[in-house]
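Schema walk-through. Below, the input block comes first and the output block second. Nothing else is stored per chain. Lengths vary across the set, and this one has 234 residues.
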Amino acid sequence: MAPVREKRVSAAMKNVNSYHRELTAEQIARGEHRGAIGGMWEEIGLLQFEFMKSRGLRPGHKLCDTGCGSLRGGVHFVRYLDAGNYYGLDINASLIEGGRQELAQAGLDEKKANLLVNDGFEMSRFGAKFDYMLAVSVFTHLYANHIVRCLAEAQKALAPGGQFLATFFQAPRPAHLEPITQEPGAVVTYFDRDPFHYSIEEMRLLGGLAGLETDLIGDWQHPRNQRMLAFSLA
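--- output ---
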């Protein structure tokens, strides 16, 4: 497996959400990295995998899993893709280490997954152009300026004709200041704190700032009502 390349987490990102919290080696050995990314390990991991196949993902494609965490979906993707075609990026080094443990336990070390610890969404550091990119439960925890950063970095790393699929909690209109109880799942989302909601108009604006076209896929059977977006090169 390719080594993890680490980068310090900036103070600004530490204040956005709790996903910078590092687990100990003992916690990782006990499998606590599965719960640290929101649980529902089997259900959401398989959901991601089946969804991406329905969007055309094939073994020969290169996939960048942005905010890959401890590889809830990544284990499925690594098993399916040709060796070296999975790239996972996350802010949290301990979650990446949990993902390495998952791959080893699944006997997938020979698939040569590429893993990167990075707090700036710098997918281009992999030195590859991606047919598909994925961000599940990432934008749901980010302010708009961080989403633009992620999209701008994705724009640099997408292959021509590539797709960046990303989930968000949808609001009914721009600047929806009131909390929303998302159903199913009963997650309460907010305009200006984690977990965040955005309207499709706001997401299209953010995509446009990064030079990307934005399409709403919408419902993809997520158990907590996260909706799916597709970004492509404008």
